[in-house]
Write a structure and sequence with these properties.
single chain, alpha+beta, 25 helices
């Protein structure tokens, strides 16, 4: 490593020193032959200028060696992880190939290097790393748990290196990534020391004044804190030794980032935080006696110091879902100071401190069902023992999201879709209008059709056209219910607009021919042509699938045949009035009786309420001398009785049937092609009942019709109304005056 063009002398010396130290540490895990080959490959890469500083001036050789050193010190990695870290950059820059790696070091190293290269490609997407979907995508791309561990350790090395970096934006971006992405990943994998350092360094670079202030407070109070821990633990050690409980006791100071979070959430000052530190008692006991000895230790401490039962946490009887086990208690020590004491076995402490399955979701980290199940498997592996741990983890598959894909927008946002989702699903996820006008997309710069199936890591930019409209076959292209529902809604809106335009087009043609459309006849005509709904018919008219000129002629022929076959009932429109005294009524008031064969009295059935035989009625003498007959519950009668009580005449029917009265019915129902035909057919089948006219308006799948019928009594009307209500598709029937 003697390249002078790219690295300073002090850097070369640091690289040589780091490499020498690393080779010595790796002798037990990596063969001499592997070390010699690694040395040769790296040295050649440096000599040929393959290693180039990145745009922020970071030395890639030092960063690589530092990552390998941190892995060795913190993770105890296997041989393949170390080799992958050392040669990854050389492969990414094209100095060596994945095929050569396989020949020299084996397929497992190739797999790890391939995973690291795939992860590096994600950062070209300008992704929003705080997005939970980006974490899932990163895990998906990694494919191997060891790749995720390497990434986390590499980030720790980078965070240590940028302390005095001159590019403030670069430092801020790296710190935010570490806070939102790498610290939570380390937390989920139980790498707590790394997680804590990443969070503390992020706080240091993002809010240096806050970090320095808290660090200074901790430094100033360290001596007092250490003294207090010594005083607090002395009687505990004594009683545990007396009870022959093998253990060691240590104090743990809260991290700077944790202190700052508590100061913010509790809105307290540094001096008001009582749990700046915790006492940890780690018991050396066989697994079968762990629970008993931890609880016994808790009771012994309770004999010395007052316990706070409300702050006791039993994660031994009921371990956390990630396998974390410990018994936490809070006791009042010297000076009435509350102190947290954590009691656990050596095994519990090893899992909690070093195990990859430790406190996941602790302190509010979000969980995911797929990772949760997988992490339970990791925990089971770890609990088998520490020996050959990496060999076991190597064989664990990270196909956590094999039924999902994670896709980027050009801005770096990440969306999650089910496997098999298409460009069209993506378009409707962005916006309904974008989906409706989608004609394709650029996926990683290449044009793709709307049915292109998305793959994890794709960057998708939708292409739209103002002339594009949704089609029915789109329902077979999309995978998500969200897109499918929006397509159906758009299709319905499009069909309704087309139907309205088709109806208007047909009406204009009939108007030009000076032909009035009878809705009932048109309904039967459309039904005969085989259409299920009027909407379908008018859509075809709009789409010119039907020749309108031919259609008009067909309707006229159909209407003529209908008129020939119909035989309307004879109607009696003349009514007579008999003026007589009804001796059965109390008093001698005049009674207006409506019946047959009486002449000389001028009367009319009022148009405002259209009374029929059976209605309770009254007569009103108008200013011209004629008598107008109203239904007793007519809205106008109350006003007339209050203002002109002397002009009101009691009235009744003669009791004779057989005459026709005009009644208007309002019918509301679903816009179905057969419903009008069914109603008219029902009326025509009723004896002594005729249909005089039909007026129908249809909007949004609902029709509203007004039927004028001739009927001879109220009883017959009630019967008819019930029958119409029972027809399929009819929602409501009401008698109306208009």
């Amino acid at each position: 490593m003697t390249e002078k063009r790219y690295f300073h002398a002090n850097e070369r010396n640091a690289m040589l020193l780091m490499a020498s130290k690393l080779w010595n540490n790796l002798r037990n895990d990596v063969s001499i032959a592997d070390l010699r080959r690694l040395h040769s490959i790296i040295a050649t890469g440096v000599e040929q200028g393959v290693y180039r500083r990145d745009k922020y001036g970071i030395n890639p050789v030092i960063r690589t060696l530092h990552t390998a050193e941190l892995l060795h010190d913190n993770i105890a990695p296997d041989r393949n992880m170390t080799i992958a870290v050392l040669i990854y950059n050389l492969c990414r820059n094209g100095h060596i190939t994945e095929k050569q790696i396989g020949e020299w070091f084996g397929s497992d190293v190739t797999k790890l290097v391939h995973g690291l290269i795939k992860i590096s490609q994600l950062y070209k997407k300008q992704a929003a790393v705080e997005n939970e979907n980006f974490r899932k995508l990163l895990v998906t791309f990694a494919e191997d748990l060891r790749v995720v561990i390497i990434m986390i350790v590499d980030r720790l090395g980078l965070m240590r290196e940028i302390n005095n970096h001159c590019d403030e934006k670069f430092v801020r971006d790296i710190s935010l990534e570490s806070r939102y992405l790498y610290a939570p990943l380390a937390h989920k994998l139980g790498l707590y020391q790394i997680k804590t350092e990443l969070e503390d360094l992020s706080l240091k670079y993002l809010q240096r004044d806050v970090y320095n202030k808290i660090a200074e407070h901790l430094k100033e109070t360290k001596q007092v804190r250490d003294k207090y821990i010594e005083v607090f633990t002395a009687p505990i050690k004594k009683v545990l030794e007396r009870e022959h409980i093998k253990c060691h006791v240590k104090g743990r100071t809260k991290s700077i980032n944790s202190i700052w979070n508590k100061m913010k959430t509790k809105k307290v000052d540094f001096n008001d935080i009582y749990d700046l530190f915790a006492i940890r008692i780690i018991i050396d006991t066989p697994r079968e006696y762990e629970k008993r000895d931890c609880w016994y230790t808790y009771s012994l401490i309770g004999d010395i110091y007052q316990a706070n039962p409300g702050r006791m946490r039993d994660w031994i009887t009921m371990p956390k879902s990630n396998g974390y086990e410990s018994l936490h208690g809070t006791f009042k020590g010297v000076g009435d100071k509350w102190v947290e004491v954590q009691i656990r076995s050596e095994r519990m402490d090893e899992v909690a401190e070093c195990g990859l399955a430790a406190h996941w979701r602790y302190k509010g980290i979000k969980a995911d069902g797929g990772i949760d199940r997988w992490m339970n498997n990791v925990r089971e592996v770890l609990e088998e023992g520490s020996k050959d741990r990496m060999d076991l983890i190597r064989n664990m598959h990270m196909n956590l999201y094999d039924e999902e894909v994670f896709v980027f927008t050009p801005r770096g946002d990440v969306f999650q879709f089910p496997k098999g989702a298409t460009v069209l699903d993506f378009a409707f996820r962005i916006h309904s209008r974008v989906g409706c006008q989608c004609i394709g997309a650029k996926v990683d710069g290449k044009n793709q059709k709307i049915n292109y199936k998305l793959r994890s890591g794709d960057t998708v930019e939708i292409i739209t056209s103002s002339t594009q409209v949704p089609r029915v076959d789109w329902l077979n292209i999309v995978k998500t219910s969200r897109a499918r529902n929006k397509i159906r809604l758009a299709l319905n809106e499009t069909q309704t607009k087309k139907a309205d335009m088709g109806r208007e087009l047909l009406q204009r043609r009939f108007k030009n021919r000076k032909v009035e459309i009878d809705e009932a006849t048109m309904s039967r005509f459309i039904n005969k042509k085989g259409y299920k709904t009027m909407t379908d018919f008018y859509v075809d008219v709009n789409d010119e699938k039907i020749d309108i000129a031919v259609l008009v002629e067909e309707y006229l022929d159909f209407n003529a045949k209908q008129q020939e076959s119909s035989k309307p009932h004879e109607t009696a429109e003349n009514f007579v009035l008999q003026h007589k005294i009804n001796d059965d009524q109390r008093g001698n008031d005049d009674i207006l009786v409506i019946g047959d064969n009486v002449k000389g009295i001028n009367y009319k059935l009022s148009k405002c309420c259209n009374p029929i035989y059976g209605d309770t009625i009254v007569g009103f003498v108008a200013s011209d001398g004629a008598i107008k007959v109203h239904r007793r519950n007519c809205g106008n009668v109350k006003h007339l009785m209050e203002k002109y009580p002397y002009r009101i005449i009691k009235s009744q029917w003669s009791g004779k049937l057989g005459k026709q009265y005009a009644v208007t019915l309002k019918v509301v129902g679903n816009d179905d092609i057969g419903i009008v035909s069914n109603i008219t057919s029902l009326i025509n089948k009723e004896g002594d009942t005729i249909l005089r006219s039909v007026s129908i308006n249809s909007t949004g799948g609902i029709f509203e019709g007004f039927l004028v019928i001739g009927i001879n009594s109220l009883d017959n009307l009630d019967t008819l109304v019930k029958k119409i209500k029972n027809l399929k598709g009819v929602k409501d029937v009401q008698r109306t005056s208009h």
